[in-house]
Amino acid sequence: MDRAVSSGRNWPFPFRRRGTALELRPCKYDLRTYCPVGAILSDYPDPSIFTVSPAASGVEGIANIDFVLFRDCWMVAEDTSPPPWYHKNVMSELTGNIHGVYDAKSKGFIPGRMSLHNMMLPHGPDKTTFESASNTELGPDKLDNTMSFMFETRFPQHLTAFAANEAPMQDDYIDCWSDLVKKFDGTPGKK
Ligand SMILES: [Fe+2]
Description:
Elements: H1 3-7, E1 15-18, E2 21-24, E3 51-56, E4 63-74, E5 92-99, E6 114-117, H2 127-135, E7 142-153, H3 161-165
The structure holds fe (ii) ion.
Residues 87, 93, 117, 123 line the site of fe (ii) ion.
């Protein structure tokens, strides 16, 4: 095992910059021990707060790559919809389900599956998740028995030939957003 890992120094960061080079360091981490943080009053926080291990870039506020974990946690906030919001950004996101149900996709995103949303590609919860979160009685709600991960990087991702041509694909993935109705009308206030 790497000395810095075994001694606890720089742990649990598997990436380390030495001069202009990026070193990869072996790291073993029991994800079941990761303690997430979250909102305690309103609004759903940006998923980047669930970062387990970051690799900083030379640009303040933008990581080369973050390793992010979504695991069991309490979803308690007021005046907001608990699933992740619809967005696009400069980060490319590779997300995978390890076990349980991912909170942004109630159907289809089964354990073992991964999705890639490349930079500036809009995405968000599927229609079923959006509608049920919009119409449920808000209150203490706990995500249980779930674990998904995400690698989030500022670099655009290219598929390998295997991933593009041979790996099993979910052909109807994009259909999860097809029935979404535009509800934003630009006026301030609670809807
Ligand atoms: Fe995202």
